[in-house]
Amino acid sequence: MEREDYERMVRKYMDTIYRIAVSYTKTPADADDIVQQTFVKLLSKKGAFVDGEHEKRWLIRVCINECNSFFSSFWRKNVDSFEAITTEPQFMTQEDTDLYEAIKKLPPKCSVVVYLFYYEGYSTREIAKMIHIKEATVRTRLVRARKLLKEQLKEAW
Hints:
Blueprint: H1 3-25, H2 28-44, H3 52-72, H4 74-78, H5 94-105, H6 108-119, H7 124-131, H8 135-153
Helix pairs in contact: 1-2, 1-3, 1-6, 2-3, 5-8, 6-8, 7-8
């Protein structure tokens, strides 16, 4: 892979990959590690991508695989870590802040589907292909996430 292509892809997809990683791990430090591993895998990828959409889907799939590996690792299962000190994003309205907090509390499987569906604009069929699950499972996770969000936010909204 040419250096210019690699740098272009990092600039273009860094934010998306980071958001997916944070939605899984819930901590910026762990998400940074996953993003780094994802882009290291990009460096070692052989072959070319068909188009920009293929690049993005490949990176999302690698990121999700890295997240799954992270949760099944010996370190994650056997070592207690200190809670990460993070700076939360600043929102214009209290509703946005409440929604952000509620989404952070969703199980990783639900929060990733919510992110890909609402923020990245993928259809349920596309999400199913990306994360290798059935389309009905994607819809079920979206319904479950909406229900959980509704329960969490009914007092705030």
